[in-house]
């Protein structure tokens, strides 16, 4: 995740607020000190494959009839929450499918809050009424990321395959703002909608939404079929990054925070811009990157658990070849801290393994070689070049 606003301004973002809330908790109980050397990732948990929409680019292939028969039961899900709470993971993000369609969602959210876990929600927003927004707030959910893939119903509803989904997502955002629940707009940028991003930013600002996050199309699930036709080229990516950078510099961070996801190489572009425009902010960004660690967080600071309890390095790595294990067979804590796990050991040394142009790039220690999942999905090689790097030129723009 590239926190553009934080890099430009250094503080005052939604991310900073959530981090301070997490750090303002009680001291670590003495019975947990024995686990102080554990890796504690942010956990993205797809609690269900079921969804009330059937989006054209869904990385998990969710839909109304997509519920897995082997989905974790309520008891198993609560046991997993207990395990994550015991590890003191910094954030548990409920995702899907659409997490709000899972019958026991509210029970799970309240259980996580009772175990002092910081939680967030990844949602299409169509089921968030004023009552639901207040319910999320009262259940301890601290943030809701809501997808908005167009500035009007024409684009959004076409991508989401559901008439009326745009209006309902907008109402969901408005309901979160009114309830005092931190929320943000998430845009999956493709050639179908990237020209509308300035208008989507304006719409989010008009609603008082404090966060704007751009995802690049991931070639997974149904997104795999669209990738060749709709993935942005490096220069188009560069244009979007320049827009977000300008907006981050123009707007007070308390008004709106800008981020990109699943593209560690974006940090290189931002560093170059700041080095030219603001040397002090450039030095601060170098410090922040040094503290956070270089490049992709998958398999280290980020983890994913699918509806069946399978564990992966990140939510976009859901393939058998990259499966870490299953929480029904072994606790998440044991899986994630197994130094000999063949998948995790590869991801935790990925910067050393990257080949091709990314392996030779002088910026490799900043971006870690880009997104390994995108390289794997597009080129069939986990260590090949990231095809979305905005530093690349020429044929890759075709």
Helix content: 40-55%
Our count of helices gives: 18
- Low-confidence sequence ranges: 26-36, 393-398
Q: Estimate the global geometry from the Cα principal axes.
A: globular
Measured distance between first and last alpha carbons: 26 Å
Task: Characterize the main sheet.
Answer: 11 strands, mixed
Q: Radius of gyration, Cα only, in angstroms?
A: 20 Å
β-strand number: 11
SSE order: EHHEHEHEHEHHEHEHHEHHEEEHHHHHH
Which structural class do the helices and strands define? Answer: alpha/beta
Strand order of the largest sheet: 1-8-7-6-5-4-3-2-9-10-11
Give a written overview of the molecule.
With 398 residues, the protein is of the alpha/beta class. 42% of the residues lie in helices and 13% in strands. It contains 18 helices and 11 strands. An 11-stranded mixed β-sheet has the order 1-8-7-6-5-4-3-2-9-10-11, with helices on both faces. α4 (105-114) links the parallel β3 and β4 (119-123). α3 (74-87) packs parallel to α4 (105-114). It starts with a strand and ends in a 19-residue tail after the last helix. Mean pLDDT is 88; it is low at 26-36 and 393-398.
